[in-house]
Amino acid sequence: MSILFLGTSSGAGKTTVCAMMNRYLSRSGIDVAPFKGSNLSLNSIATKDGGEIGIGQAFQAWAAGIEPETDMNPVLLKPSGNGVIQLVLNGKPFMDLTKERKMDHEMVMGEVKMAFDRMEAKHDVVLCEGSGSPVELNLMATDIANVGLMKATGVPAVLVADIERGGVFAAAYGTWKLIPDELKPQMKGFIINRFRGDRTILKSGIEKVESLTGMKCLGVLRYEYLRFPEEDSMSSSEGKLEGNDVHAAFLANLDEMIQHAEEDGFDFGSLKNMMGL
């Protein structure tokens, strides 16, 4: 059983929401693990099995109470400057991508699918995270982590939309509208993230997006002044991080986020139903 958290843009909060759900399910006694087919990040860690993955998936693994491993992030793209991107495949440096040297998309997508299948075989639930926006029209044909994963696996998806940027309803509806028609049935819900204020003022807008798309709003998450690991330049270095043990402080912040979500009526039950739990 799996679900994919997509974002209306980079920095929408899907890494943190996915980590929150890993923590929530793990605390409920469910064997859960994270997965991100392709990550563009210079912030990485070395795993105990000798590989390299993005810090976001390591954070999500800690939230799930398990050790990070290379299958959680089979493709890591590390910008090297001057138009060069290092491709780390299955935890190991594979090649430098340039304008002249392109990625073999079919081969790489095959490796991603095998890593995903191995994660599903080992865990009851796999929580997948997308990369950037799923509807960058110039990139969709070679997408890996978003529509590419949806096509390869049939995984259902939930959209995370950041209201802090403004235009949240346009972003949510526009993203759904641009998703290929054959994949729209896999778009099951949406989450409004980083809201400040009275949630009741969003009611009519939420109902309109639900009516237009068939996606269910799972809840409105409040703006959190909590610090989490920084995955890329879109991450915030601000927020509360208390204690001498950084890992424990990250998990304490997730626990606080879960508590606030429960207080605000976030629909964890419907999200679990979407995962078949």
Describe this structure in words.
By secondary structure, the chain is α/β, with parallel strands linked by helices. The chain has one domain (about 1-35, about 105-275): P-loop containing nucleotide triphosphate hydrolases (Rossmann fold, 3-Layer(aba) Sandwich). It contains eight helices and twelve strands. The strands form three sheets. It has a six-stranded parallel beta sheet with strand order 2-9-1-10-11-12, sandwiched between helices. A hairpin with a 2-residue loop joins strand 6 (about 75-80) and strand 7 (about 85-90). Helix 1 (about 15-25) packs parallel to helix 2 (about 55-65). The relative contact order is 0.17. The model has no long low-confidence stretch (mean pLDDT about 95).
Short description:
This protein has helices at 14-27, 55-64, 105-122, 147-153, 168-178, 203-213, 246-263, 268-274, and strands at 2-7, 32-35, 38-40, 44-46, 52-54, 75-81, 84-89, 92-97, 125-129, 157-162, 187-195, 216-222. By secondary structure, the protein is an alpha/beta fold. The chain has a single domain (2-37, 105-274), classed as P-loop containing nucleotide triphosphate hydrolases (Rossmann fold, 3-Layer(aba) Sandwich).
Question: What is the straight-line distance between the termini?
Answer: 8 Å
Report Rg: 18 Å
Write down the secondary-structure element order.
EHEEEEHEEEHEHEHEHEHH
Into how many domains do the coordinates divide?
1
Structural class estimated from helices and strands:
alpha/beta
- The averaged pLDDT comes out at 93
Uncertain parts: none
Indicate the CATH topology.
Rossmann fold
β-strand amount:
15-25%
Main beta sheet strand tally, sense and closure? 6 strands, parallel
Secondary structure tally, helices: 8
Question: Superfamily at the CATH H level?
Answer: P-loop containing nucleotide triphosphate hydrolases
Helix content: 25-40%
Task: Find the count of extended strands (DSSP E, 2+ residues).
Answer: 12
Query: What is the highest CATH level, the class?
Result: Alpha Beta
